[in-house]
Amino acid sequence: MSYPQRFPSDNPLVTVTHPTATTWVLEMHNGEDSRFTDHFINHAFMPALDAVERHWRQDWRIAKANKDKEGGKGTLVIVGKRGQDKFFSNGLDYDNIMNDPAYRISFFPIIMNPCYRRLIAFPIPTVAAINGHCFAGAMCLALCCDYRVMTDGSSRRAWMCMNEVHFGSGWPLSLAAITRIKVTDARVHRKIALEGHRFTPSEALEAGIIDYTVKGDTEAVIAKAQEVGESVSGMAREGSWGTIKRDLYRDLLEACARETRPSSVIIDEAEAKARL
């Protein structure tokens, strides 16, 4: 299989490279800040995940057939656009999604939540290489990964933030479930959800939202993320990494699957008006 692979091939928004025998790097480059859209998720990000899993499974089956105890390792690193050190991702293309009545209702249940579920249960270790600002839906994407490595912000400012409270957007069930299960401290939940706090890298590390900070540019963040991923890549050899995660995060996967409508300030006000 040859690399790099680009998705979609005619106007790439995601590029996958395979720098070592056990590591795949998925680079998001939908503009400078890699906003999430229907096209980006369904025609770039999800097919890229499929391509990585397909290749890893081919290697894993060969290792099993040959009784190769060192074969079948794997890890996936996800990073924002290389060549810039400002954004991991700015999250959803919110204005355009909210301006389209169909997307406003369906974006999370039909598009975003299947992506989260896919990543939560991915069969090899996943590492978010957070090379800049990481906002809203993108923060949850990073939380869906098994590990998080972030720039230390010394050369350029970088924040992690769920900022919906600041512009009057409710949280879909999936965002609440991801935050609740991947971040264990209720005081941190309050800062994330109800205060919309902008966590600096050092604050995110102290709060347990990320695992490591790295001094340097995007390539330094990728290098550390790769190191972290490769240190546990052998855990994929027996094929149970994803199976165990499906049980470990069963409640989270079920929450992402049962979303039926978006949480909305407008809906909340209408229900309060009828009730009061």
Automatic annotation (TrEMBL):
Domain of life according to the entry: Eukaryota
Stored Gene3D superfamilies: 2-enoyl-CoA Hydratase, Chain A, domain 1 (3.90.226.10)
Molecular function as annotated in GO: delta(3)-delta(2)-enoyl-CoA isomerase activity
CC terms in the record's Gene Ontology section: peroxisome
A Pfam family the protein falls into: ECH_1
Biological process (GO), any one: fatty acid beta-oxidation
CDD domains with a match to the protein in the record: crotonase-like
Family, similarity comment: Belongs to the enoyl-CoA hydratase/isomerase family.
PANTHER family attached to this UniProt entry: ENOYL-COA HYDRATASE-RELATED, ENOYL-COA HYDRATASE_ISOMERASE FAMILY PROTEIN
Protein name per the record: Enoyl-CoA hydratase
